[in-house]
Amino acid sequence: MALKKYYAVLRGKKPGIYRVWAGGEGAQVQVMGFPGARYKGFEKLEDAEAFMAGKNPVTSPDASAGNKKKLRPYEDAGLDPLDYPIHVFSDGGAIGNPGPGGYGTVVIQEDGSRQEFSAGFSLTTNNRMELLGAIVGLEAVKNEGVPILLTSDSRYLVQGIEKKWARGWRARGWKKSDGTPALNPDLWKRLLDLLDHMEVRFQWVKGHSGHIENERCDVLAQSASRGSNLPPDTGYKGK
């Protein structure tokens, strides 16, 4: 997949051509949450300018179906957010781990509409909340037939899916390769059942690094974990 260098926003909060996707000066903030946003990434400036002018791109190296490349492993995939019509961002944590915890999730639907979800529990773990945040986000997706990019700062979640560890645990009756029980089988099963019918790519980002939506999810999760009269996480069985 060719990396994009220019992001053309034809319809958004502030139309124009941007050199970066994320961050306060990037294209992402111009299109996320903007109904009917229209935007696209390009390798060359002249193609971005042609798009803004309503013309066909001057060059289109990825236009032919036969030129579609297999995605590389997520660690160095260079995933382009513009290739995914639906975006899910999730985060979760527990105070004390285990302890009171919560998740926060942001879903950007294909039409640009935005939804936020969060909930807290009286006793749970970081990993359970990371999993549940992703599950809630995917369950909220309106159109399961389009590619979805799920972004999380949990290596446990992202590697569990992208490295196919969780599918291996399921195939072995929720046992690890060494025969020991896999943790959180209830949530992994729920997540894999969703993924069996959806096209989702998981992307890891470093937490607390300024990623706008990841930071928002963290705020939602932190607030939920500090709520009053939190219900129990009935799936948590203790260490």
From TrEMBL:
State where Mg(2+) 2 binds: D91, D218
Query: Entry cofactor note text?
Result: Binds 1 Mg(2+) ion per subunit. May bind a second metal ion at a regulatory site, or after substrate binding.
Question: Where does the secretion signal sit in this chain?
Answer: none
Query: EC top class, in one word?
Result: hydrolase
Keyword Glycoprotein assigned to the entry: answer is: no
Q: Give the EC number(s) under which this enzyme is classified.
A: 3.1.26.4
Record key words, sorted: Cytoplasm, Endonuclease, Hydrolase, Magnesium, Metal-binding, Nuclease
Where do the annotations place Mg(2+) 1 binding?
D91, E130, D153
Its Gene Ontology molecular function terms? magnesium ion binding; nucleic acid binding; RNA-DNA hybrid ribonuclease activity
InterPro entries with a match to the protein in the record: Ribosomal_bL9/RNase_H1_N, RNase_H, RNase_H1_N, RNase_H1_N_sf, RNaseH-like_sf, RNaseH_domain, RNaseH_sf, RNaseHI
- RNase H type-1 domain span: 82-226
Q: What does this protein do?
A: Endonuclease that specifically degrades the RNA of RNA-DNA hybrids.
What family does the Swiss-Prot or TrEMBL record give for this protein?
A: Belongs to the RNase H family.
For this entry, the protein name equals Ribonuclease H
